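Supplementary Methods. Inverse-folding protocol.

Structures were first reduced to a C-alpha coordinate string of length 302. This string, shown here, constituted the complete conditioning input.
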Protein backbone atom coordinates (compact mmCIF):
# COMPACT_ATOMS: atom_id res chain seq x y z
CA UNK A 1 0.00 0.00 0.00
CA UNK A 2 1.29 3.48 -0.89
CA UNK A 3 0.79 5.96 1.95
CA UNK A 4 1.90 9.54 2.55
CA UNK A 5 5.27 8.38 3.98
CA UNK A 6 6.07 5.69 1.40
CA UNK A 7 9.37 6.37 -0.42
CA UNK A 8 8.90 6.80 -4.16
CA UNK A 9 11.73 7.10 -6.66
CA UNK A 10 10.93 10.06 -8.88
CA UNK A 11 11.92 13.69 -9.23
CA UNK A 12 10.92 15.55 -6.08
CA UNK A 13 11.60 18.84 -4.35
CA UNK A 14 14.80 19.70 -2.52
CA UNK A 15 13.95 19.44 1.18
CA UNK A 16 15.56 18.61 4.50
CA UNK A 17 14.82 14.90 3.93
CA UNK A 18 15.45 14.63 0.18
CA UNK A 19 18.49 16.76 -0.52
CA UNK A 20 19.27 15.57 -4.05
CA UNK A 21 15.78 16.02 -5.53
CA UNK A 22 15.65 12.39 -6.70
CA UNK A 23 13.32 11.02 -4.03
CA UNK A 24 9.94 12.07 -2.78
CA UNK A 25 7.72 10.65 -0.09
CA UNK A 26 4.22 9.37 -0.52
CA UNK A 27 1.23 9.82 -2.74
CA UNK A 28 -2.32 10.81 -1.79
CA UNK A 29 -5.71 11.13 -3.48
CA UNK A 30 -4.69 9.39 -6.69
CA UNK A 31 -7.80 10.06 -8.70
CA UNK A 32 -6.43 9.25 -12.16
CA UNK A 33 -3.70 6.99 -13.41
CA UNK A 34 -2.48 5.02 -16.38
CA UNK A 35 0.38 3.32 -18.16
CA UNK A 36 2.15 5.06 -21.01
CA UNK A 37 2.93 3.30 -24.33
CA UNK A 38 6.58 3.15 -23.23
CA UNK A 39 5.83 1.30 -19.99
CA UNK A 40 5.98 3.98 -17.31
CA UNK A 41 3.20 4.64 -14.82
CA UNK A 42 1.53 8.00 -14.27
CA UNK A 43 -0.35 8.84 -11.08
CA UNK A 44 -2.38 12.04 -10.76
CA UNK A 45 -3.19 13.52 -7.37
CA UNK A 46 -6.00 15.93 -6.54
CA UNK A 47 -6.86 18.20 -3.62
CA UNK A 48 -3.45 17.64 -2.03
CA UNK A 49 -3.13 21.32 -1.13
CA UNK A 50 -5.56 20.86 1.75
CA UNK A 51 -3.24 18.49 3.60
CA UNK A 52 -0.62 21.15 4.23
CA UNK A 53 -0.66 23.46 7.23
CA UNK A 54 1.43 26.31 8.58
CA UNK A 55 1.96 25.74 12.29
CA UNK A 56 2.18 28.77 14.53
CA UNK A 57 5.96 28.66 14.74
CA UNK A 58 8.82 29.98 12.67
CA UNK A 59 9.63 33.12 10.74
CA UNK A 60 7.39 35.02 8.36
CA UNK A 61 6.96 34.24 4.68
CA UNK A 62 7.74 36.57 1.81
CA UNK A 63 4.96 38.33 -0.11
CA UNK A 64 5.63 36.10 -3.13
CA UNK A 65 5.35 32.95 -1.02
CA UNK A 66 2.07 34.14 0.46
CA UNK A 67 0.65 34.93 -2.99
CA UNK A 68 1.68 31.54 -4.38
CA UNK A 69 0.04 29.69 -1.51
CA UNK A 70 -3.22 31.59 -1.82
CA UNK A 71 -3.24 30.86 -5.55
CA UNK A 72 -3.15 27.10 -5.01
CA UNK A 73 -5.22 26.94 -1.85
CA UNK A 74 -2.26 26.05 0.37
CA UNK A 75 -2.33 27.20 3.99
CA UNK A 76 -0.30 30.37 4.56
CA UNK A 77 -1.22 31.11 8.18
CA UNK A 78 -1.61 29.00 11.31
CA UNK A 79 -5.07 27.93 12.50
CA UNK A 80 -6.70 30.40 14.88
CA UNK A 81 -6.07 29.99 18.61
CA UNK A 82 -8.32 27.34 20.14
CA UNK A 83 -9.13 25.65 16.82
CA UNK A 84 -8.81 21.90 17.30
CA UNK A 85 -9.38 20.89 13.70
CA UNK A 86 -8.54 22.37 10.32
CA UNK A 87 -8.91 21.14 6.73
CA UNK A 88 -5.42 19.71 7.04
CA UNK A 89 -5.11 16.90 9.56
CA UNK A 90 -1.67 15.58 8.65
CA UNK A 91 0.87 18.02 10.12
CA UNK A 92 2.05 16.77 13.51
CA UNK A 93 5.18 15.75 15.43
CA UNK A 94 4.98 12.27 16.92
CA UNK A 95 8.03 12.67 19.14
CA UNK A 96 11.35 14.47 19.40
CA UNK A 97 12.94 11.77 17.24
CA UNK A 98 10.04 11.01 14.87
CA UNK A 99 9.24 13.83 12.47
CA UNK A 100 7.88 11.83 9.53
CA UNK A 101 4.82 14.06 9.22
CA UNK A 102 6.57 17.38 9.72
CA UNK A 103 6.89 17.77 5.94
CA UNK A 104 3.25 18.85 5.95
CA UNK A 105 4.25 21.90 8.02
CA UNK A 106 4.95 24.74 5.57
CA UNK A 107 6.12 27.23 8.20
CA UNK A 108 9.51 28.80 7.59
CA UNK A 109 11.15 27.41 10.72
CA UNK A 110 14.76 28.26 9.89
CA UNK A 111 16.51 30.92 7.85
CA UNK A 112 17.68 28.53 5.12
CA UNK A 113 14.78 27.15 3.03
CA UNK A 114 16.83 24.03 2.28
CA UNK A 115 16.38 22.88 5.89
CA UNK A 116 12.62 23.13 6.36
CA UNK A 117 9.57 22.12 4.35
CA UNK A 118 8.21 25.48 3.20
CA UNK A 119 8.52 24.41 -0.47
CA UNK A 120 7.12 20.90 -0.04
CA UNK A 121 3.73 21.85 -1.48
CA UNK A 122 5.29 23.12 -4.69
CA UNK A 123 5.80 19.55 -5.84
CA UNK A 124 2.06 18.97 -5.62
CA UNK A 125 0.45 22.26 -6.57
CA UNK A 126 2.70 24.36 -8.73
CA UNK A 127 2.22 22.40 -11.93
CA UNK A 128 -1.49 21.64 -11.77
CA UNK A 129 -3.33 21.69 -15.09
CA UNK A 130 -7.04 22.59 -15.16
CA UNK A 131 -9.33 19.84 -16.43
CA UNK A 132 -12.37 21.98 -17.12
CA UNK A 133 -12.54 23.92 -20.39
CA UNK A 134 -15.14 26.61 -20.91
CA UNK A 135 -15.83 27.90 -24.41
CA UNK A 136 -18.30 30.74 -24.20
CA UNK A 137 -21.78 29.87 -25.38
CA UNK A 138 -20.66 27.34 -28.00
CA UNK A 139 -21.06 23.57 -27.81
CA UNK A 140 -17.83 23.04 -29.72
CA UNK A 141 -17.97 19.25 -29.52
CA UNK A 142 -21.61 18.97 -30.54
CA UNK A 143 -22.61 17.06 -27.41
CA UNK A 144 -26.20 15.93 -26.97
CA UNK A 145 -28.39 14.92 -24.04
CA UNK A 146 -27.17 11.35 -24.59
CA UNK A 147 -23.44 12.05 -24.29
CA UNK A 148 -23.05 15.44 -22.60
CA UNK A 149 -20.42 15.40 -19.83
CA UNK A 150 -18.01 17.65 -17.98
CA UNK A 151 -14.86 17.40 -15.87
CA UNK A 152 -13.17 14.39 -17.48
CA UNK A 153 -11.04 13.27 -14.54
CA UNK A 154 -9.49 10.22 -16.20
CA UNK A 155 -8.75 9.14 -19.77
CA UNK A 156 -7.72 5.54 -20.40
CA UNK A 157 -7.14 3.77 -23.72
CA UNK A 158 -7.98 0.10 -24.08
CA UNK A 159 -5.22 -1.97 -25.68
CA UNK A 160 -7.78 -4.54 -26.76
CA UNK A 161 -10.15 -2.19 -28.58
CA UNK A 162 -8.54 1.27 -28.85
CA UNK A 163 -11.55 2.80 -27.09
CA UNK A 164 -10.84 5.88 -24.99
CA UNK A 165 -12.71 5.44 -21.70
CA UNK A 166 -13.61 8.80 -20.15
CA UNK A 167 -14.23 8.95 -16.38
CA UNK A 168 -15.89 12.08 -14.97
CA UNK A 169 -15.92 13.84 -11.61
CA UNK A 170 -18.34 16.76 -11.49
CA UNK A 171 -20.99 17.00 -8.80
CA UNK A 172 -21.99 20.37 -10.24
CA UNK A 173 -23.64 18.68 -13.23
CA UNK A 174 -26.12 16.68 -11.16
CA UNK A 175 -29.00 18.78 -12.47
CA UNK A 176 -28.54 16.75 -15.66
CA UNK A 177 -26.96 13.48 -14.56
CA UNK A 178 -24.49 11.91 -12.14
CA UNK A 179 -20.83 11.29 -12.89
CA UNK A 180 -20.30 8.72 -15.61
CA UNK A 181 -18.11 6.54 -17.79
CA UNK A 182 -18.17 7.19 -21.52
CA UNK A 183 -16.72 5.25 -24.45
CA UNK A 184 -15.14 7.26 -27.27
CA UNK A 185 -13.72 6.11 -30.61
CA UNK A 186 -10.68 8.37 -31.20
CA UNK A 187 -10.38 10.32 -34.43
CA UNK A 188 -7.29 11.05 -36.50
CA UNK A 189 -4.86 13.95 -36.41
CA UNK A 190 -6.08 16.61 -38.83
CA UNK A 191 -9.62 15.28 -39.19
CA UNK A 192 -11.16 18.54 -37.94
CA UNK A 193 -10.79 22.17 -38.92
CA UNK A 194 -11.02 25.79 -37.88
CA UNK A 195 -13.78 26.86 -35.49
CA UNK A 196 -14.82 30.30 -34.25
CA UNK A 197 -15.77 30.46 -30.58
CA UNK A 198 -18.05 33.22 -29.33
CA UNK A 199 -17.05 34.50 -25.90
CA UNK A 200 -18.69 36.82 -23.40
CA UNK A 201 -17.90 37.95 -19.88
CA UNK A 202 -18.85 40.67 -17.41
CA UNK A 203 -16.28 43.40 -16.79
CA UNK A 204 -17.29 45.91 -14.15
CA UNK A 205 -20.90 44.83 -14.56
CA UNK A 206 -20.82 45.41 -18.33
CA UNK A 207 -21.06 42.46 -20.72
CA UNK A 208 -18.15 42.22 -23.13
CA UNK A 209 -18.23 39.97 -26.21
CA UNK A 210 -15.63 38.71 -28.63
CA UNK A 211 -14.60 35.82 -30.83
CA UNK A 212 -11.61 33.50 -30.92
CA UNK A 213 -10.56 31.21 -33.73
CA UNK A 214 -9.30 27.77 -32.78
CA UNK A 215 -8.95 24.30 -34.28
CA UNK A 216 -11.07 21.33 -33.22
CA UNK A 217 -11.18 17.69 -34.18
CA UNK A 218 -14.06 16.18 -36.11
CA UNK A 219 -17.26 15.89 -34.08
CA UNK A 220 -17.69 12.33 -32.81
CA UNK A 221 -21.45 12.40 -32.56
CA UNK A 222 -23.46 9.79 -30.67
CA UNK A 223 -22.08 7.01 -32.88
CA UNK A 224 -18.51 7.47 -31.60
CA UNK A 225 -19.10 8.98 -28.15
CA UNK A 226 -21.56 7.18 -25.90
CA UNK A 227 -22.43 7.13 -22.23
CA UNK A 228 -21.53 3.63 -21.00
CA UNK A 229 -22.66 3.82 -17.37
CA UNK A 230 -23.86 6.40 -14.85
CA UNK A 231 -22.50 6.24 -11.31
CA UNK A 232 -24.51 6.41 -8.05
CA UNK A 233 -25.34 9.77 -6.49
CA UNK A 234 -22.43 11.56 -4.82
CA UNK A 235 -19.77 9.36 -6.42
CA UNK A 236 -17.16 9.73 -9.10
CA UNK A 237 -15.79 7.21 -11.58
CA UNK A 238 -12.06 6.83 -11.02
CA UNK A 239 -9.76 4.10 -12.23
CA UNK A 240 -10.37 1.53 -14.95
CA UNK A 241 -8.53 -1.46 -16.36
CA UNK A 242 -9.29 -4.64 -18.29
CA UNK A 243 -8.15 -8.20 -18.87
CA UNK A 244 -5.73 -8.68 -21.76
CA UNK A 245 -8.47 -9.99 -24.03
CA UNK A 246 -10.74 -7.00 -23.34
CA UNK A 247 -13.60 -9.24 -22.23
CA UNK A 248 -13.68 -8.08 -18.60
CA UNK A 249 -13.67 -4.45 -17.48
CA UNK A 250 -12.91 -3.26 -13.94
CA UNK A 251 -14.29 0.16 -12.95
CA UNK A 252 -13.85 1.92 -9.60
CA UNK A 253 -16.72 3.87 -8.02
CA UNK A 254 -15.40 6.24 -5.38
CA UNK A 255 -17.22 7.84 -2.40
CA UNK A 256 -20.91 7.23 -3.30
CA UNK A 257 -23.20 9.28 -1.08
CA UNK A 258 -20.41 11.77 -0.43
CA UNK A 259 -22.82 14.52 0.64
CA UNK A 260 -24.70 12.33 3.12
CA UNK A 261 -25.29 13.65 6.63
CA UNK A 262 -24.00 11.60 9.62
CA UNK A 263 -26.20 8.60 10.34
CA UNK A 264 -26.99 10.11 13.76
CA UNK A 265 -28.76 13.00 11.99
CA UNK A 266 -31.66 10.73 11.10
CA UNK A 267 -31.61 11.96 7.49
CA UNK A 268 -31.58 9.42 4.67
CA UNK A 269 -28.15 9.07 3.04
CA UNK A 270 -27.64 10.55 -0.41
CA UNK A 271 -26.90 7.01 -1.59
CA UNK A 272 -26.63 3.57 0.00
CA UNK A 273 -24.98 1.91 -3.01
CA UNK A 274 -23.98 -0.90 -3.45
CA UNK A 275 -25.90 -2.39 -0.54
CA UNK A 276 -29.22 -1.40 -2.12
CA UNK A 277 -28.25 -3.49 -5.15
CA UNK A 278 -27.64 -6.58 -3.05
CA UNK A 279 -23.87 -6.29 -2.70
CA UNK A 280 -22.21 -6.05 0.71
CA UNK A 281 -23.60 -4.77 3.97
CA UNK A 282 -26.67 -2.57 3.59
CA UNK A 283 -27.41 0.74 5.31
CA UNK A 284 -24.50 2.94 4.29
CA UNK A 285 -22.66 3.74 1.03
CA UNK A 286 -19.28 2.20 0.22
CA UNK A 287 -16.73 2.57 -2.53
CA UNK A 288 -16.47 -0.49 -4.73
CA UNK A 289 -15.06 -1.95 -7.93
CA UNK A 290 -17.49 -3.07 -10.64
CA UNK A 291 -16.59 -6.08 -12.78
CA UNK A 292 -18.28 -5.89 -16.19
CA UNK A 293 -18.65 -8.68 -18.73
CA UNK A 294 -20.90 -9.30 -21.71
CA UNK A 295 -23.60 -11.97 -21.65
CA UNK A 296 -22.20 -13.39 -24.89
CA UNK A 297 -18.62 -13.29 -23.56
CA UNK A 298 -17.56 -10.76 -26.19
CA UNK A 299 -15.14 -7.85 -26.03
CA UNK A 300 -16.41 -4.88 -24.00
CA UNK A 301 -17.38 -1.84 -26.04
CA UNK A 302 -17.53 -3.43 -29.49
Amino acid sequence: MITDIYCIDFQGCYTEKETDGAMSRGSLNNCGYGKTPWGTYLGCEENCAFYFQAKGTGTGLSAKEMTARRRYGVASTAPAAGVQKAISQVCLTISATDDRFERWNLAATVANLEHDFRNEANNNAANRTPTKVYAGDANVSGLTANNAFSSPDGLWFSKATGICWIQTDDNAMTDETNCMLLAAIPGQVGDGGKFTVKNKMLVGGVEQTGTQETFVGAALGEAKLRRFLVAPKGSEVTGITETNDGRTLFVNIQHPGELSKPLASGEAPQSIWPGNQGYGVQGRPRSATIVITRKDGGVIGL
